[in-house]
Amino acid sequence: MSVIYVLLAISIIVAIVFFIAFIMAVKKGQYDDSYTPSVRMLFEDELIKDKSDKSILTKKQ
Amino acid sequence: MEHSTCFHCGLDATLSNITYDDKPFCCNGCKTVYEIFSVNDLTCYYDLQQAPGATPKDIEGKYNFLENPKILDKLLEFNDESVQIVSLYIPHIHCSSCIWILENLNKLNAAINSSIVNFGKKTVRVTYNYKLLTAKELVTLLSSIGYEPFISLDDYSIGKKQTNRSLIYKLGIAGFAFGNVMFLSFPEYFDLFSNKTGTGEFWLEQYKHLFRWLMFAFSLPVVFYSSQDYFISAYKGLRSKILNIDVPIALGVVVLFLRSTLEIAFDIGSGFFDSLTGLIFFLLLGKFFQQKTYAFLSFERDYKSYFPIGITKITDVGSESAIQVYDIKKGDRLLIRNEELIPVDCVLIKGSARIDYSFVTGESKTVSKQSGDKLFAGGKQLDGSIEVDALKSVEQSYLTQLWSNEVFKTDKQAAFTNLTNRISKHFTIAILSIACIATTFWLFTDNSKALNVFTSVLIIACPCAIALAAPFTFGNILRILGKKKFYLKNASVIEQLSKIDTIIFDKTGTITANKESTINYEGIELSLEEAALLKSTLRGSNHPLSRSLYNLLSEHNIVPLDTYEESIGKGIEAQYNNQQIKVGSGDFVGCTTETSTLNTTVHISTNKHYKGKFTFYNAYRKGLSQLFNTLNKEYDLAIISGDNEGEKTNLTKLLPTKTKLLFNQKPEDKLEYIKHHQGEGANVMMVGDGLNDAGALAQSNVGIAISENVNVFSPACDAILDASKFNQIYNYINVSKSAIKIIKWSFVLSFIYNVIGLCFAVTGQLSPVVAAILMPLSSISIVVFTTITTNLLGRKLN
């Protein structure tokens, strides 16, 4: 089998993998809201909070 | 006194004296929210944004209807044995703190599995275990932390709505195919399949069929799925005998596909699959670009968005039950709680009513009613609970009847032929005749080329650039105006706006500011002590007139009052150091020389001596006079108001003499007035604000709703304008006119490309490479041209 078949097959498979990923992303609703995720990704750290951290609050006033 | 603001909501907390954890709060509600958060280790809420909160409102009993399973079922997105999912619209969502707290709801109640915020739509989607937490408890929890959801009759029917994502799929598929076809076309572009050029790549030729059939395969989903809309639209157009822009596009796509398939099948050439997929991709991109909508705004609101879903009915035996508003029958006894909306026309039976009709009339002053008085649907009760007897059903009420007018059923857009379609009519005819003439010519000279020329003409003339000019220009203009706080419903509004010749304004709330008014005092001048006493007296009252008078009066020392008594609907009486004051209506104060006046007045007397009165005048928006004088040169202007003539003299002074002034107009009168003018051939723009303008806004060619706060509700309209930008109306109309000019110039540009392309086509020289270069080039240059010019236009607006 010529190398051209292998190359074409690989290129098309790669393209189709990305295409499926795109379809799945749309289906999951990732394109419905393009703003909130950008804010959400910055939150993670604040979830657990020690009482000692309250000093930050008083500083802000 | 030291000035301090509430740690939770940012309101003035100087006078409240509520502190907790060394932080000032304006009220106990705000303090409670802070306590909830600090107990649950959620105080990080205040780190993300300063004073992000809202004061929780008293909602006792307001959401009882959520206990009714029939109503609840319509609101739920998902309902399983233990899990329920509900999407709630929360108007207060405005910052990152809001997202954070709402997505950490499970910290407040373990029954909540997850909550996801959509910031653009201001919704939160909550998944919860309903065995541990009912929907009503969930709403109560949200309200207790200041995030009261807004549940209206509108949600009732669309609880399980699916979002339409087909355009993204179509665009994705077209892009995917376009890229791959381009990639497979490279051997053709560099002429690698032939040995004529002597590049020594002859070995590739044995694979050319594979390459070509792969391209064919990639183009199939594009032709049969992505370009679907164009075929449907062209078919619809032809059926109603309109040559819209989609006709030549659909024709081009069909010809491209058939000719390419035949070419590769009979080994004549490589076909035009790259141009075909590229064309669809660019067209869909334009569509996607134009589709910019403001998710947090709604342009389709009718009374349903304002009305509650459920209402409390008092049964014959005296018990309360939550029923759905549509189930209200004539004669039903209803309980309207504080801050609840009256859903039907009714008679007041028990309790003192103070009704805010601002939803209906745009008028912010409240009206007091005694038992036996008739109340109209749409009013909001402000003074405790009342009991009423329904006079009509929801659909037959005075306010809701307006929506049975056929204006609300006709689609404004459908009746309007846009610029692109008007051009395309001539364009299509011209292309078809060129194709026929060229084919006839070649039939006589060299008939082997005739079919080639015919298809080439149709391919190259496919009006990609023309079809792209409008979406990109309008899409960009929509974005620019949106940044300037002028939110348009869709692109066709821009075109409509450029054709306006008559502008009609509503008065209250539109050309006047809702909150501000000016006062004028007539009578005996008040001494310093009396003025201080007046201010101190007003401070205790919650009546809106007292509030606005209090804010308008100059600063005085606040004195502690000895006695204070408020008679509802009449006025206030107070005493301090043997000095007595009466503030209120003429009768209450003892005004003997009551002259009938159309304006709102507040009378004052001290120690039983009549002093004088404060008269309130509407405060007109900034730059009103200037705006009208500029508009007057080009447009017919009119003011149409539901109010009395009290402001007539004031208005005639302010506005150009040609302006028509109409008073005492009912909602239907406004609608009829606009209809009358349109009958005479005028293109009318209506600027209004309240639900009473809804008919006029729907009837006009362009209906613009003015809003002090775009997040609260405005009636159905074509555009929403932020009140602060009111004086910019003239400039915004001019932008829309320039946008049309830009599109016309883009048409000229794309015609030049078409002429060049046609030269190749009619001479029978159109090769795939020429098509592959010319078609994207024309599209991209149009996109670049419109983007640059519209941005220049936007810069001029500053």
Automatic annotation (TrEMBL), chain A:
Keyword Transmembrane: yes
Residue intervals passing through the bilayer: 6-26
Keyword Transmembrane helix: yes
Coiled-coil regions listed: none
This protein's UniProt keywords: Membrane, Transmembrane, Transmembrane helix
Xref: PANTHER family: FIXS PROTEIN (PTHR41532:SF1)
Identification of the protein by name: Cbb3-type cytochrome oxidase assembly protein CcoS
Organism: Snuella sedimenti
Upper classification of the organism: Bacteria, Pseudomonadati, Bacteroidota, Flavobacteriia, Flavobacteriales
From TrEMBL, chain B:
Residues passing through the membrane, by range: 167-190, 210-231, 243-262, 268-289, 427-445, 457-478, 742-763, 769-793
PROSITE patterns referenced in this protein's UniProt entry, alphabetically: ATPASE_E1_E2 (PS00154)
Translocase listed as a keyword: yes
InterPro entries assigned to the protein according to its UniProt record, in alphabetical order: ATPase-cat-bd, ATPase_P-typ_cyto_dom_N, ATPase_P-typ_P_site, ATPase_P-typ_TM_dom_sf, ATPase_P-typ_transduc_dom_A_sf, ATPase_P-type_domA, HAD-like_sf, HAD_sf
Major site of localization recorded for this protein: membrane
GO cellular component: plasma membrane
CDD domains recorded: HMA
GO biological process, one term: copper ion homeostasis
Residue ranges occupied by any Putative metal-binding domain in the UniProt entry: 5-74
GO molecular function: ATP binding; ATP hydrolysis activity; copper ion binding; P-type divalent copper transporter activity
Limits of the P-type ATPase A domain: 318-403
Localisation per UniProt entry: Cell membrane
Gene3D superfamilies attached to this UniProt entry: 3.30.70.100, Calcium-transporting ATPase, cytoplasmic domain N, Calcium-transporting ATPase, cytoplasmic transduction domain A, HAD superfamily/HAD-like
UniProt entry keywords in alphabetical sequence: Cell membrane, Ion transport, Magnesium, Membrane, Metal-binding, Phosphoprotein, Translocase, Transmembrane, Transmembrane helix, Transport
The keyword Cell membrane appears for this protein: yes
Bilayer topology: Multi-pass membrane protein
Family assignment from sequence similarity: Belongs to the cation transport ATPase (P-type) (TC 3.A.3) family. Type IB subfamily.
PANTHER family membership: ATP7, ISOFORM B, CATION-TRANSPORTING P-TYPE ATPASE-RELATED
Protein name from the UniProt record: Heavy metal translocating P-type ATPase metal-binding domain-containing protein
Lineage of the species this protein comes from: Bacteria, Pseudomonadati, Bacteroidota, Flavobacteriia, Flavobacteriales
